[in-house]
User: What shape does this take?
Amino acid sequence: MPITESEVTTKRIKPRLPRGMRDFLPGEMLKREYVFNIVRDVFHLYGFEPLQTPVLELSETLMGKYGDEAESLMYGAYHKGSKDKDKLLLRYDLTVPLARVVAQHYNDIALPFKRYHIAPVWRGEKPQRGRYREFYQCDADIVGIPDMVADAEIVSLVVTILRRLNFPQFRVKINNRKLLTAIGQYSGLENGQLSDLYRSVDKFDKVGADGVGEELYNRGIDKDVIGRMMPLLQAHQPGLENLDHLEASLGHLEVAQEGLRELRELVTYIEAAGIPSEYYEFDFTMVRGLGYYTGPIFETVIIDTDYGSISGGGRYDNLIGLFRGESLPTTGASLGIERIIDLMDELDLYPAHINNTVVDVLVTVFGDETRHEAVKLTAELREAGIKTELYMQDRNLRRQLTYANRKGIPFVVILGTDEIEQGIVTLKQFNNGDEMKIARDELADTIHARLT
Amino acid sequence: MPITESEVTTKRIKPRLPRGMRDFLPGEMLKREYVFNIVRDVFHLYGFEPLQTPVLELSETLMGKYGDEAESLMYGAYHKGSKDKDKLLLRYDLTVPLARVVAQHYNDIALPFKRYHIAPVWRGEKPQRGRYREFYQCDADIVGIPDMVADAEIVSLVVTILRRLNFPQFRVKINNRKLLTAIGQYSGLENGQLSDLYRSVDKFDKVGADGVGEELYNRGIDKDVIGRMMPLLQAHQPGLENLDHLEASLGHLEVAQEGLRELRELVTYIEAAGIPSEYYEFDFTMVRGLGYYTGPIFETVIIDTDYGSISGGGRYDNLIGLFRGESLPTTGASLGIERIIDLMDELDLYPAHINNTVVDVLVTVFGDETRHEAVKLTAELREAGIKTELYMQDRNLRRQLTYANRKGIPFVVILGTDEIEQGIVTLKQFNNGDEMKIARDELADTIHARLT
Assistant: This one.
């Protein structure tokens, strides 16, 4: 049944969005795509291949992987025809879906499986500036390689992306879960208290050493234990010396030896890949919140700001095992792409040529007399690969020029009755004010030459 | 808390997907992206700009727009912390979200608003071959132009996309809801029966003229009325003659005059845009299921197949009004992109150069002696813009070559201890069997030259 005019005036629905969700109008979209395209190009340069999974996953796939707090933030979904409203969830990240995919399609995947995934995820957090309930994640992971050469690829990938996006001083903080375990053992922490250690130390940047110490104490950890732990966590010497410093205290512990060997190897590969040392450092207070990490962990921050981390990741050798029944070594990183996009604006990192529109040329129209010829010219320009908009209203030239200028279209082609008669057009270029009459068959070449 | 080895072996979760949902592994993704990139390029060529809206919409936004059957197919969603499980829906198409966006952001949008939107939608239909519960739509619409020049842009856009994708014989069927109304009036149909007419005639391709006649009769429409209607619906003369034929019967009805004028204008613009006449025809049995169309409607089929339609659209001047309280002329088309992707395979339309991998070059590794040098060479190639994968396991050369060949990587760079000493590499090209030793500083240029 067609919608009638009377319905339009009587049934009005207020147009609005669910809380914490966003529309992206074209101007914003073009900026987002500038960022996504650079990220995608670097993923390809490093040999990562695209993967896509559905937005909806079975509850059993996601539950029990992220911890209780995360589970309370998830979105459930259900088919209207189904009685069971608890069977489906919107994905919460891209890592657990990867683990499911690898186990499910194990025979169709060649190892190592280097995949990237750029897609939205959903978390019902309290909306606030820079925090949304639907937001994009950009992940790259390497499945099947236990060697540190894979972790080095991940660190090098993140550094390359941020450099290509023109980020100024940033640094990848590197730690190893094995060293945290060793620091715990050395200090006399009981085995069951390791997750308390992670959770408290995770707040180092926010509450400082005293705050972390207090929290550990409140979690029932002995003052002596905390006293032994703190100097090691805060060790902060340049480069590999920081590892030597830890080794002096922890070298007798097997798990420490392994953790130190891994980080030393990791750094030799990062160096071989030509990543300048200003872009990474060891930081033993960096623990990453998530439970599934088993080896080296990474987190990237913009130096001397409080923007928080813009990328995180690490090695998680057991997650895929939950779906496969057998562990499979995996390492990867996730870019905080929404924060990166926000920072691109704040730090003014977009190049000048980023436009508000995809359109190169507007073709003018002056009433029915010229409209068919304008349609024809528009088709000619498009055929020549020029992104062309045909003006579709009846307005005077000034209005049409204003429209193009406001929208940021760089060229206007004026095609009046005079021009049609003479087989020419008037080409106007906004950025330098040039205006010239040229033969119609030279138009496409002229625009091409001036666009590049 | 870290996932332990014992959890991996005891807690195994069967990896599987919700019904009707799909993973896309890299090989498939690269094909899908080939299609999406062509579609996106043509959208840009025509001056359409990208828009993105959230997956979740408020129920009030979507309900009452698609009809009861559609509403029973929708997916509900809810925040785990919320008691109300009926407030949110996953989007069902991209058209109603567009209408909401235009009304909501009316002051931030310049009219005409030409937007495209490529994104998944959810419909809980019975899964079957070629029908999925999560699938992509590709829409392009023009908001703000009542003139047929806009509808002609849409038809021309669809034809251009399908030609660029190499689709063989296809045809855009064109009709006008106003002519259907006129045929109803002429035949003596009561006003309230118009939606019965749409619903029955929509099945013309499936059940034929007799089937449609029978269904109309079963819906309580008089045999005489059906008898007057059928010859007009089935009028099938070449080009504009088909309109002349209808005019002879319907010319006295105002709504017919308007519908005929619109289609005649539409065709003059399609012709001016240089679209060959083999690509479109009038078909008065084509009605489009959805209720919101008000003027010209389009549907594209592959000729002489039963693949069904691969694109549909039309003018819907009142839909935005439901959110805005005032009508806003709008026309557009949706590509049946999943069916198009399936057909690309069936009709063998992908170009030969489509690869299973993004990777151009594999750099080999032979143990710890060569690994650091291989990491360095990999970084050099990437710096030169070559998509490079570093081999990350310890295997013999044959295994590494087999890996590259199976994956479809066109080049392998062999870097053994001999090569490192001499400052050279061995470059192997799979498609012609070439194998050559070259200086390392000439490697990137050589690969670039052979890639294009």
